[in-house]
Specification:
Elements: E1 2-12, E2 19-25, E3 31-35, H1 38-48, H2 58-68, E4 72-82, E5 85-94, E6 97-103, H3 105-115, E7 119-122, H4 123-131, H5 142-150, H6 154-159
Amino acid sequence: MNIEVRIRGLMMDPATSMPIVVLKDVASDAVMPIWVGIFEANAIAIEIEKVAVPRPMTHDLTRNLIRQFNARLEYVVISELRDDTFFAALWLRRGNEPMVIDARPSDAIALALRADCPIYVAEEVMQAAKLNTAGPAEGQTSEQLRGWLEGLNDEDLGRYKM
């Protein structure tokens, strides 16, 4: 079963200075952080903030290619957590033909934003991430980090915003 999530925030981890995408379950208060690279975080931030860019960025190009081939991105799923690495899949449809393409979660999220499609997390991934959040700061337990992320309000997200 998949859990629909929305981006709760995009911020810098104050302990590691790495970007974090905070995903929130639309049906509960559960949150799941995913540490991403700076370039991927920038691609997500540009779309969240609707910044106009003079030329298509990589994710814009990918969206345009999908459209040009008469396909559509129906949804993305963060499908697996293995060895502290998240995996995702793009679920596309071309006519009656479904297609599933492996992707990094950060790329899947950036594309989902551009295609205005849902983002899901596999239930087992959400459960595993609750116990095993990748990238906690040194000396900080996963539970402490999770508590900190769950306690963030809009003001906090603004303070740590990229």
